[in-house]
Design goal:
The chain has 7 helices and 11 strands. By secondary structure, the chain is an alpha+beta fold. Among the domains are: 61-92, no CATH class; 128-199, no CATH class. The chain is globular, with a radius of gyration of 19 Å.
C-alpha cells in the first residue's frame, strides 16, 4: 500500500494481514520499515530490495550472481556492453525499450499485456526542463564526484524529466545518487538546493536528516538491538528519524 503526501510516499508492510513496524524477521527474510523507506533482506541469497519514494533497487552479491542474471544489468559481470539483454539473449540498444520484453503475465493487470505504442522520436527536451538535473553535476555533490561517477545519474535524470510529465521525477535521480554517495560514506544534504522542488515534509512524529541509520531505535522489547538492528543497519540518505522512539511513532 502507498499514500502520496507531497513528494513523500508512505509505505506500509503487512504479513498475513497484520501490519508490521518497524521490523519483522523469520527464517527466510528480514523486513525493516521507517514508513518511508522499506528494506527487504533475504539472507540465504544475500539479496536486498529497497523501496523508497518513487524508486526501488535490488542489490545482489557477485559471489552468487556473477554471470547469473538477465535483463537490464546483463549477466552481472560489470560489463556494460551486455546490459539491457532481451529474453533471447540479444542486446537492446534501448534499455527503456527492453523493459517491455520482460513483462510478467498478471491476470489482475490486463493493461500490462498491451504492446507499447510506436511513436515518433520525441522532440528535443524544452529548455530549462532539465535544470533540476544540473544539481547532480554542481558543487552540491562535489564531495562525491570522485567517489561515485555522476554522469550516469545525470543522464538518467535528463531522460526521466524529458519523457515524463511530472518534473519532480528528477528528484528520484538526485535521491538515487545521494544514496550511492551515502553508501560510500559521503553524506550530501542536497534537498535545499532544488528551489523547493524536492522538499519533503515529514509526519509530525519524524524529522528530516540527510543521512542516518536505516533502522530506527525503538523501546519495543520485541526488537532488541542486538538481534535485529545491528546486523542490517547502514548509513542511508534522506532518512526520517522519529522524534519519539516509541514503536508507535
Amino acid at each position: 500500500m502507498r499514500y502520496v503526501m507531497f513528494f513523500l510516499i508512505i509505505r506500509k508492510v503487512y504479513i498475513n494481514g497484520n501490519q508490521i513496524f518497524p521490523t519483522f524477521s523469520n527464517e527466510d527474510l528480514i523486513i525493516t520499515s521507517t514508513g518511508v523507506e522499506l528494506l527487504l533482506k533475504i539472507p540465504a541469497i544475500k539479496a536486498t530490495v529497497m523501496f523508497k519514494s518513487l524508486m526501488f533497487s535490488v542489490t545482489l552479491p557477485h559471489s552468487l550472481f556473477y554471470n547469473n542474471t538477465e535483463g537490464q544489468c546483463g549477466t552481472c559481470d560489470n560489463n556494460r556492453k551486455n546490459d539491457c539483454r532481451l529474453p533471447n539473449g540479444q542486446i537492446d540498444p534501448s534499455c527503456p525499450g527492453m523493459a517491455h520484453e520482460w513483462k510478467i503475465p498478471d491476470d489482475k493487470k490486463p493493461y500490462c499485456e498491451q504492446q507499447p505504442p510506436t511513436t515518433p522520436t520525441p522532440p528535443t527536451c524544452p529548455s530549462g526542463k532539465t535544470d533540476i538535473c544540473d544539481v547532480i553535476l554542481s558543487p552540491v555533490f562535489q564531495q562525491c564526484h570522485d567517489v561515485i561517477p555522476a554522469q550516469p545519474f545525470f543522464e538518467a535524470c535528463k531522460f526521466d524529466v524529458c519523457h515524463m510529465p511530472n518534473i519532480s521525477i528528477g528528484c528520484s535521480s538526485l535521491e538515487a545518487y545521494a544514496g550511492r554517495c551515502a553508501a560510500a560514506g559521503v553524506c550530501i544534504n542536497w534537498r535545499n538546493s532544488t528551489n523547493g522542488r524536492c522538499e519533503l515534509r515529514c509526519p509530525k512524529t519524524k524529522v528530516y536528516k540527510a543521512c542516518g541509520s536505516s533502522i530506527q531505535p525503538t523501546c519495543n522489547s520485541r526488537y532488541p538491538s542486538h538481534s535485529h538492528l545491528n546486523p542490517i543497519s547502514f548509513s542511508s540518505h534522506s532518512h526520517f528519524i522519529p522524534i519519539s522512539f516509541s514503536s508507535h511513532s
